[in-house]
């Protein structure tokens, strides 16, 4: 049921009014529970995929599958990483309020030039810790999550960035900053039992880093995290992280998912506050009006068209291609006109 948190009107899942509290006060007022005028308002369009429900307030425009383009393969991959082909939300949503415009967060998702600058101190501290450890001791499990953030530009370039229609994009494919994670005992066996060997290998061979479904959310298939960007004000954005349990997989997979957020995405992490600090400073700088333009020229002119029909393009991972693609979509949304 849906229950209004103010006066307690309660509705069935199909939106019909089930009851109003304090019935006596509505006697002879003409209220009829079965009358659709008292039902919840329907959104224009609803669709679902692998248990995720999507709604659109617009009655027209591209349909659900057309809109998602190849980002649907990221949802499929995250869910197929479960031996049962199903995921479930684990725990509550992790909120993180950012003092910046939502576009800065979304632009950052496929920005591969900032990690070695903005997150340099984390890599340095982690290396110092490892050097101080006795010879021959095993790396702590956190190391394999943190170290790829200090990778060279060449690795990120090799990962490539792929852009799609409607402003979507993703990095990686065969290789990402997640592809060198260690094996978890029993996981491959459970995946082969659920999917067969061939599909199990195919599922694990897809490694995307931050698939951006423009403008509102991002998926990490290899880590089982979805983050939703909710604009609150011109300079305030709430980021909500949701973590998923792969049904039928060893618990250690979920531990790695949670560890990833604890180390990278949470307000108390070692990486997230670096980004937060830079976003807040950029917001302040841009609001001063000192600079008219923000440069987005990286690897300009070196995009490779993968599919003209679906508008898919690819470039070295440190290219600004994904940001240019986002503003192309944004201009279209704001003006109804495509960028020439
Ligand atoms: Fe970052």
Write the layout of secondary structure elements.
Layout: E1 2-3, E2 10-11, E3 17-19, E4 45-49, E5 52-56, H1 64-68, H2 72-80, E6 87-89, E7 94-98, H3 102-108, H4 115-118, H5 120-132, H6 143-146, H7 153-159, E8 161-163, E9 169-173, H8 187-195, H9 197-205, E10 207-213, E11 217-220, E12 225-233, E13 236-246, H10 251-265, H11 272-287, E14 304-307, E15 312-315, H12 321-335
Antiparallel strand pairs: 1-2, 2-3, 4-5, 6-13, 7-13, 8-9, 8-15, 9-10, 10-11, 11-12, 12-13, 14-15
Bound molecules: fe (ii) ion.
Describe the structure.
The chain has 340 residues and is an alpha+beta fold. The strands form three sheets. Strands 6, 7, 8, 9, 10, 11, 12, 13, 14 and 15 form a ten-stranded antiparallel beta sheet that branches. The chain has a three-stranded antiparallel beta sheet with strand order 1-2-3, with no helix packed on it. It is globular, with a radius of gyration of 23 Å. The relative contact order is 0.15. The protein starts with a strand and ends in a 5-residue tail after the last helix. 33% of the residues lie in helices and 21% in strands. It contains twelve helices and 15 strands. A hairpin with a 4-residue loop joins strand 11 and strand 12. The chain binds fe (ii) ion.
